[in-house]
Amino acid sequence: MTLPDADEHIVDPEQLRIAAEELFDLEQQMERECSSLVSDGYPVENAASRLGLSLGNQLGITAAHWRQVRMRGSRNRVVNIGQFLATHAETSIDIDEFSASEFRQFADSDRFPVATSRSGATPGSEPLGEQIASV
After folding, report:
1. Is residue 128 domain-resident?
2. Does 7 have pLDDT greater than 70?
């Protein structure tokens, strides 16, 4: 495995910004879908309850629990990852440069050969954004 030079970004900051925006959009979509699922279940819950079936009440309780407990945790994790990526996009240049210089100094060159020029780079060593764009 050949790693990028110190002057190259391991992860393209713009790709991180795009991914963060997509995660924030995903969280909003998750909320809309959960709300829709709960509200779409009301007619079934009401009809079952009118028929005297305890299932109707349980459907409402289950849907509310799923939205408030289960999906809230998943949505929070999606937002947290988006926030991390957005923050990292703004700080990655300094981190990439520092990490690359430390890596060159301390890495085992037999185990992790470092690319010495862009022309000597191997597939997969280009910035993540270029890897994604080439797919």
Report:
1. yes
2. no
